[in-house]
From TrEMBL, chain A:
Domain FAD dependent oxidoreductase per the UniProt entry, residue ranges: 3-356
Entry keyword annotation includes Manganese: no
Gene3D superfamilies: D-Amino Acid Oxidase, subunit A, domain 2, FAD/NAD(P)-binding domain
Name listed for the protein in its UniProt record: FAD dependent oxidoreductase
Signal peptide: none
GO annotations of cellular component type: cytoplasm
One example GO MF annotation: oxidoreductase activity
Upper taxonomic lineage: Bacteria, Bacillati, Actinomycetota, Actinomycetes, Micrococcales
UniProtKB/TrEMBL annotation, chain B:
UniProt-recorded Gene Ontology molecular function terms: oxidoreductase activity
Gene3D superfamilies reported for this sequence: BFD-like [2Fe-2S]-binding domain, FAD/NAD(P)-binding domain
Protein known as: Putative oxidase
Pfam families reported in the protein's UniProt record: Fer2_BFD, Pyr_redox_2
UniProt entry keywords in alphabetical sequence: Oxidoreductase
Every BFD-like [2Fe-2S]-binding domain range: 403-454
Residues in FAD/NAD(P)-binding domain copies: 5-339
SUPFAM superfamilies: FAD/NAD(P)-binding domain
InterPro entries, sorted: BFD-like_2Fe2S-bd_dom (IPR007419), BFD-like_2Fe2S-bd_dom_sf (IPR041854), FAD/NAD-bd_sf (IPR036188), FAD/NAD-binding_dom (IPR023753), Metab_Enz_Cyan_OpOx_G3PDH (IPR051691), Opine_Oxase_asu/HCN_bsu (IPR017224)
Automatic annotation (TrEMBL), chain C:
Sorted UniProt keywords: Oxidoreductase
Pfam families noted in UniProt: Fer2_4 (PF13510)
Keyword check for Transmembrane helix: no
GO MF annotation, one: iron-sulfur cluster binding
Protein name: Proline dehydrogenase
Organism this protein belongs to: Nostocoides japonicum T1-X7
Length: 388, 484, 88
């Protein structure tokens, strides 16, 4: 055991810090801003099994879901605002319904609960005439900022230290050993035996700085937040085409309809995806499209007002799987980024992966963690030379 | 006319001056404002009611006595009306701009209509979208508020709220009214209330007049301001309104509405003294701590902001040009300085737009005059900001259970907890952990208090960035349908 | 003033002058609050008076969350005290 520096104090960094601290590591979390200042504060906090087809990401999510429930027991559900909200996927046409039925069949085979329902039974205010609804009672939600803070505080109680307000600007590795020296923007430095790249959408830039580039890119998204209206939307409700959009590699704008109520009474409306770098500019057309889709699904929303919209950057990876594991080119570097829109959901399992890998010999990651195969997420899958 | 040369958001002194100057020099203008009449908050006028419905309506004439420099206002209005008649300008009143975005190399302003007279939304609602190569953000300012015990009781308002009721509706907010906070704006509010028949029990100005002592050169450069002050002092005396300096309202008392206020003297360090407090019966109170510039649209457009000494964000500009090409600003958005400065800046900004759009070199003598005037008025504004700063001990007027965020009902204790026990280090983190600033007003009311509270607790100014409000006004989804 | 114009507020008629907002007319009638907050049920009314603060929200003709300081009063309008986020 020694010291590990986790770069990034978002939800993934917080979970890496907690699980590493529990494994006995001395943990330092560095963040250029502060806790959950980036993508973790710009998302809904979804913990979804429903949007993942049978495969490695769903395996990881099912594991992560167990971790989340355990964290809820250990740290208190209130501190995470952990809510067993449940998801409802709807399809308008019979053709789309059949495609989704086949998708759900594959999910059930690996243990996902997916029950065909009449959407109106679960959501009285939803539009009439939908072809099918599939209810996913295992879908959860947390409040990602509170969750990041609460999890990081738990790590702090085990000795972890947060150094916020300054970015990592340079990294050196001593030739003889795998000891790292990271220089921060404020002129200070921190030394470590291991470095975890949990920099979310900035994981690509950070990985290049550390000498082990991985292809993580920002994928911009807007979420609309309405006035508080009370419980007129009870589940996370989304249209079946959402999964196609998530899985697409198209750089252009895609929008699919995702609508959900929150504890505060506001309704969250997503989701757009486009690869435009870190362009932070407002795009009113995206807001218009998202609003139109939401009203089509819940006509009652026509007279509801949008109070704000937030715009964030998901950490996009070309094969739509996160990058978790030791970097074969850089001893001591473990990646934990590229989760795209599933970072909150996958964070605890990612933390468990990272904790298991920190102790492993270089390049010899465990084949399984918590019964989930590690190979599909390995940074080595991109080959030696990766354009970041 | 399709597609003006410039779209101006805000028809207060800055936006009006900018629009008529631009038109005079050959540009076409679209002017968008949320109010039902041009004039902004400073020259706020009653909503015009026409035809048979107008019987008994509040008229501009009956609120004229509340206004300052109306000839200038009337001249601007008539020049605007001429421009509209000539097809050189269009005005879109009663339109709330919800956002701005890039469009065809220029900027598009997106607005929705307020509920019109008759109380109903415009049939079908819909969105107004006007685009132009140049955007002028002249969105003014609103009262800065700070929390104190009982400030969420009905009947406790901002000083500007009292004034808006008078100017816009010919209604006095109460029969016995206290006016408090700091700044010269409190004086016309008190006088206006008295002229409208209310009893003003006192104007409680937190800062002693001696704070102006250091700024005599700035005062000397602005003799008109001095005359204006003397005018209000005479009016206070005429209406027997007591002006009590070095005092602040530390508590509003009452069960369902304000029934009294407690007033404390401030000590030399700006802390309310525990002794010698008085309780005064009132049925309304207006408190104002200066003004907060509305920079939302400029921030959404990507314009850089800077911070004033008191932590308020203003749009960074030079001669009205922001850091973003094609986006301009004028008036309180560049730093609060009052209507005279806003008028000068509005005109100055129009010349910058003109130079950038046409290469036309405007009247050099006029520009020199404007630049001198703007510099003098800004020096006065800077002096005023220092002479009427928030007293250092303002937090003593709050209790742990005092709501900091009125919308989300977040007490001060929650903010203290976030700072002390959860290691929040700035206002952004406080907001995320407590929800203060995440409600209906999106932090417009509580942001000043939250930032000041953070500064008080961490012992240095809050450094978090200007709050981004990509949606500048709540927008009904029905209004966005059919125009993607 | 000629014919008295009124709107309905809960169970009473409130006179107004054309051009006045609902909030101004209620204030002129010495009515100071017309909603209760979602969490603590506290009474609220006008605060900023210019459409910034959203404290004066009220239900107008069945639609909750209307700003009383901005909505112009109209004959026959039904204004009702709003509890919490209102119903729709």
């Amino acid at each position: 055991m020694g010291r590990v520096v986790v770069i990034g104090a978002g939800i993934v960094g917080a979970c890496c810090a907690l699980y590493a601290a529990r494994a006995g590591w001395e943990v330092v979390v560095v963040d250029r801003e502060g806790v959950a200042a980036g993508t973790s504060s710009h998302g809904e906090g979804n913990l979804l099994v429903s949007d993942k087809g049978a495969g490695p990401e769903l395996d990881l999510m099912l594991s992560s879901r167990r971790h989340w429930l355990a964290l809820g027991d250990e740290l208190g559900r209130e501190g995470l605002e952990l809510d067993e909200k449940g998801g409802l996927v709807v399809a308008a046409s019979e053709a789309a319904a059949d495609v989704w039925r086949a998708f759900a069949t594959g999910q059930r085979e690996v243990g996902v609960l997916a029950e065909e329902v009449d959407p109106v039974d679960l959501e009285p205010r939803i539009v009439d005439g939908l072809a099918v609804g599939v209810h996913y009672p295992q879908d959860l939600q947390v409040q990602p900022v509170l969750a990041s803070q609460t999890i990081l505080e738990a790590a702090t109680r085990l000795g972890a230290v947060l150094r916020s307000g300054s970015p990592v600007v340079a990294a050196q590795r001593t030739a003889s050993s795998s000891t790292w020296r990271l220089r921060l923007g404020d002129g200070t430095a921190v030394e470590a035996d291991r470095v975890v790249n949990a920099a979310g959408p900035w994981g690509g830039e950070v990985s290049a700085l550390l000498g082990g580039p991985v292809p993580v890119l920002p994928r911009r998204g807007f979420v609309l937040v309405t006035e508080p209206v009370g419980p007129i939307v009870r589940h996370k409700v989304y249209s079946a085409d959402y999964v196609d959009n998530v899985g697409s590699s198209d750089a252009g704008l895609q929008t699919s309809c995702v609508v959900e109520g929150t504890r505060g009474g506001t309704i969250l409306i997503g989701a757009s995806r486009e690869r435009v770098g870190y362009d932070r500019s407002m795009d009113p057309d995206v807001v218009r499209r998202l609003a139109a889709q939401a009203v089509a699904l819940f006509p009652v929303l026509a007279d509801v007002r949008i109070l704000r919209t937030y715009r964030g950057f998901r950490p996009y990876c070309p094969d739509h799987l996160p990058v978790i594991g030791p970097d074969p080119r850089c001893p001591g570097l473990v990646h934990a980024c590229g989760h795209e829109g599933a970072g909150v959901g996958l964070a605890p399992a990612t933390g468990a992966f990272v904790a298991a890998m920190l102790s492993a010999d270089h390049g010899r990651a465990p084949v399984e963690v918590d019964g989930v195969a590690t190979a599909p997420f390995a940074p080595g899958r991109f080959g030696e030379a990766v354009p970041a | 006319m399709t597609g003006a040369d410039v779209v101006v958001v805000g028809a207060g002194p800055a936006g009006l001056a900018c629009a008529v100057t631009a038109v005079r020099h050959g540009l076409t203008v679209d002017l968008v404002d949320a109010g039902w009449a041009v004039g902004g908050q400073y020259w706020r006028h009653p909503a015009p009611v026409e035809g048979a419905d107008g019987a008994g309506a509040v008229t501009a004439g009956e609120v004229a006595h509340l206004h300052h420099d109306l000839p200038t206002y009337r001249a601007l209005c008539s020049r605007l009306e001429e421009a509209v008649a000539a097809g050189r300008a269009r005005t879109f009143l009663g339109h709330e701009v919800w956002t701005v975005g890039r469009r065809d190399g220029g900027w598009e302003v997106a607005a929705t209509q307020r509920r019109a007279a008759g109380g109903r939304h415009a049939p079908g609602g819909g969105e107004l979208r006007v685009a132009a190569p140049a955007l002028v953000v002249a969105t003014g300012a609103y009262d800065t508020s700070l929390p104190f015990r009982g400030w969420d009781l009905p009947g406790v308002m901002t000083a500007g709220g009292l004034q808006a009721l008078l100017k816009g509706h010919a209604v006095a907010a109460g029969r016995r009214v206290a006016v408090a906070g700091s700044g010269p704006f409190l004086l016309p509010v008190a006088v206006g209330l008295a002229e409208s028949g209310a009893e003003v029990v006192g104007v409680y100005e937190a800062n002693p007049p001696t704070r102006w002592g250091r700024h005599l050169p700035a005062v000397a450069r602005n003799v008109a301001k001095l005359a204006e002050g003397a005018e209000y002092a005479a009016a206070l005396a005429r209406h027997r309104i007591p002006l009590r300096t070095g005092r602040m309202v530390v508590e509003a008392l009452g069960t369902d509405r304000v029934e009294a206020v407690t007033v404390a003297r401030l000590d030399a360090t700006g802390r309310p003294r525990p002794d010698g407090r008085t309780t005064v019966a009132v049925d309304a109170v207006g408190v104002g701590w200066g003004f907060t510039p509305v920079v939302d649209l400029a921030v959404t457009a990507g314009c850089a902001t800077t911070r004033t000494d008191d932590g308020r964000h203003v749009v960074a500009e030079t001669e009205g040009r922001t850091s973003v090409e094609g986006v301009y600003t004028a008036g309180e958005t560049t730093g609060v300085g009052g209507a005279a400065l806003a008028l000068a800046e509005g005109e100055r900004t129009a010349y910058s737009v003109l130079a950038d759009r046409t290469g036309h070199d405007p009247d050099a003598a006029r520009l020199r005059h404007l630049d001198r005037r703007i510099a003098a008025l800004r020096s006065f504004a800077a002096a005023m900001a220092q002479a009427h700063a928030v007293p250092a001990g303002w937090v003593d007027a709050t209790a742990a259970e005092t709501l900091v965020c009125r919308c989300e009902e977040v007490p001060r204790a929650a903010v203290d907890h976030a700072l002390r026990d959860r290691e929040a280090r700035d206002a952004r983190q406080v907001k995320q952990l407590t929800r203060a600033g995440m409600g209906w007003c999106q932090g417009r009311v509580c942001e000043a208090g939250c930032r000041a509270l953070v500064a008080d607790r961490i012992g240095r100014p809050d450094r978090s960035a200007a709050t981004e409000r990509l949606v500048a006004m709540p927008v009904r989804m029905r209004d966005l349908l059919g125009t993607p | 003033m000629t014919a008295l114009t009124t709107f309905r507020f809960d169970d009473r008629d409130v006179p107004y002058r054309p051009g006045q907002s609902v909030g101004a007319a209620l204030t002129a009638c010495d009515i100071r609050s017309w909603r209760t907050t979602p969490r603590e049920g506290r009474p609220r009314g006008l605060f900023c008076g210019i459409g910034i603060c959203y404290d004066c929200l009220v239900t107008v003709d069945g639609m909750p969350n209307q700003r009383a300081c901005l909505v112009l009063a109209a004959d026959g309008m039904r204004v009702t005290t709003q509890e919490g986020v209102g119903e729709r």
